[in-house]
């Protein structure tokens, strides 16, 4: 293989363009050789005149472009299944932005295709696993120094939500990060979901149930509460406190420059997830490039993508009914054992 | 009236002895003139040879002792109702440690007696209202600078629980502070309670459901989650974050001396509520003395004591059944309007 | 002796009036029986119609008033020496606001008078010794857990200075607290002083050398830097970091309620020393009352008052000359051994 | 020019090997084509079997290797001058680890050579300018929102010093970072240096004057104090507080995961500068690669390297003599205007 991994990037929107910039910028060992987007102008803008990158309208064409050795899927979620199956068929390592696919049924089809292949090619973009603070928390919990985890208290706040956001998307799109983080940090499955709905904030668009308090029960008996508030107005904040039998550990209050002005000492609050998690995205893509150059996939698997979808569907049902909803999951293929 | 308010202290246990020490120590304007406790030795120890204090076995005798102008009730909760009714009958201002009485029915009888008197004599010992941080949070919420409160996240942790503690007491004895704090901070009633039960900590006594996650819904549409963990092992911690429409405010992370040692920067964690809330107890008793010298009662009322009991009973039912339980409350007398 | 220590308060200005309010308010065990101030209206205002308090124009008259068992000196520093000598002559325990007297020569005369008496009657108002954070730092340093202290970094900031403040007073009036704190925390004498003078802040009155960086060398080889900035504009802040052989400890960054608003997380900064050190003042007066009721004096001694004056004089000389100035001290009487 | 900038790395020690790893790892847009080190084994180990990298004993040979378009100088400081002059002669952009050269005289020769060329080729490795917190502080100071800077309080602590470290090297090697940071943050020259010497820590090697308190005066009237403590034992810490006319700003207290254990809440303290400043090193090399691909140099200049040497020499004299030493500097060539 060549010196640098040749990557096709599918989708040139916000995330896709950021990944194009990242590969060759903060991430070495790879270069973008093809970009696909139905909007050619957007694709050209992402490439920005870089030499040796072909631009395509169709994802399938990008997959077949010369020099493509791996695929980064950043297209709309409706297009994921087809792209994943095609890339799997060509044996290409894949980094797929979350969600894996729009629902658990389609996710399960992707899992099945990869399981039939008999080796992992897919890494799902749950990038919190690559955040330094989350990694420190995971290491501490795994060490059992604080005993068994009993509770996780999670906060997930955005400044404001995009125009198309629905009440269900607070769970399926935003809380999906906490779903994966819960499963990963605890090494347990989520077995039931309840959603409590405060009177919506006046700062949220009419009709949007924002904020919500989402409650998980896990296979190991832990309870998790997640505040999701996508129109908090004040900042992008992701915090997590793990309460264990002999202590607790808290991340996400990271602070930097403290300014003292008359009567107040303040710190800036991050406004955007690309700022808060910039390093995590870099580390995620670096880990993927390193594995892909050996023809492998590591990190969050297609099964993790499926599990997140199954829990999110239970969550959306809990939101709609106001009741506690149990999570039903398929049998886990041996590949993900 | 004399220069110093003459106080009878009923009960010479942990709290009672602490109040005896407080009056004449950190609190001026009052002096203890009588102490009652069935255990005479304990009462004598609390008085510690102070001149001019009479010691009694019976609360009724202490109330009739010369110089008694006000009553501080720190006896076991089973004895509260009788003491409160007797003190009311004598027109004496009362500071009654929480809970007002053991259940909502008896609390309602006390409320009725005071309401018939037509003036407030009873202040209930919800001393968090006198904590500087809680007071700052209350002032901020009342200012509406951050908009309407949507969520309260509360943490309430003890190092370990006394031997007689039951799973219900996590709610009725410990969370009762958060019940009052919620009602006071939000100026709303609690309308429903749900309790989630993680697998108990190995650090808790066999059979004790510890920790619990208690969820309140309020009349104004706010949702409140309370972690109660009475065998946390690591410290006494009371934290509260109010999430509002345009910002959030968090108390209880107060830190003081930061020590840097090889590889670690640390701060001490308070181990006892008498340390964390020492100033609040002082301020509470000072406020009570000031009002009592004018023959009045301010602060948390008997009605607040009743309301806390009613919510706690719903909470205990929710704990037992696993279901969401609505709170039923009597009609509020005009005196507490 | 009576139940409550009878106190004469000399001076009814800001500090004097605060102490009158404190005794009988947050401090039990004592009551004010006499107040002296040349400005009778001010004295009457401080007393606020309290029964049984005589008001005087002359300090000497207050000392002779019936019921006076102890003296709190809060008059202008020029009046201290005469009041101290008179109170000593009457054998009255004294709490004297700092500075002990206006200069080291007069301070030494007071020391001599007390030394001839052969017992301590005077406590000087270096109230930081009673601050909980300073006390924790002192205990940690004394434990030698972190090894020998090598450096102290001190910050002392006021919002703005009173109209009459001079460049010398930054040292003699403000840094005098750090002089005592250094001697007390380290248990060492200050042997030399150097003062560095940044270009003055535009926020300081014309001609005032503000801020200054004051440097101490101590008998045990430690070096201390003190930022004194009395027109900082932003708050009242007192911080201290002790750097030791095996770690460091830092106080004065205490934080309480954290508020998150768009783009910023902030905390309030105290604006006034009576807020920051309110508890320390209470504890100081409580300790003094407790000792005075036994006819004794504890805490900072007249000798400490003298030493502070001697160091401050060296500091003022260092400020004036720009040179390093050695501190000359008299021999310490056995009483203060 | 080729797609990736071809870099020769001179020196394969700790820093050199780290840069080899960085280029092609966290930094894209460049690749290492040649490495030089007298110790061939060390050079080979740094390259780690990477294809297309030539290994040399002599720096001159590496500069002439095919594909070399830029030079990263990480050899011992005694070898810098020759390498810099040779690279300049070949017109190659250079990133030179600090110090530029071992003394101000040799630094001035390098400055002269670059000035005669008439364009900047040299960037000096003062990587703090690329740290996110320092950059935020610089932006805030430049905005003048807080007014003019009056004081900088700097702390610079290492766990322990290498065996060859001398008392002078605390200034010339360690404080050189604060020298550059002071000049850059304030946009002012350092005009005088004083060094205070506490009794050395028992944790420092026999004879090493550690810690020291280094004091700078600047051309704009600011005063800077720097604690340098290279055997602090507890961690690697770099902190800076800028005190301005209308507020202060403090960096370097960044915290991440807070763990609560019995009686203590703690955070880890970084032990190594490659951890604390990992991102700054990445950003530094990225900025250099970006400029070098356009044939330019940005960031800290050879003149900055010279100025740091001149101030450090004054500092070493101040340490030796105990006196205040003025800084003498050559005239600044127009190229660095």
From TrEMBL, chains A, B, C, D:
One MF annotation (Gene Ontology) recorded for this entry: inositol 2-dehydrogenase (NAD+) activity
HAMAP family: IolG (MF_01671)
Subunit structure: Homotetramer.
Task performed by this protein: Involved in the oxidation of myo-inositol (MI) to 2-keto-myo-inositol (2KMI or 2-inosose).
Keyword DNA damage among record annotations: no
One family name in Pfam for this protein: GFO_IDH_MocA_C
GO biological process: inositol catabolic process
Species assigned in the record: Streptomyces venezuelae
Enzyme class: oxidoreductase
Domain annotation Gfo/Idh/MocA-like oxidoreductase N-terminal: ranges: 6-125
Reaction catalysis annotation: myo-inositol + NAD(+) = scyllo-inosose + NADH + H(+)
EC number(s) on file: 1.1.1.18
Keywords per UniProt: NAD, Oxidoreductase
Family affiliation: Belongs to the Gfo/Idh/MocA family.
Protein name (record): Inositol 2-dehydrogenase
Domain Gfo/Idh/MocA-like oxidoreductase C-terminal: 138-327
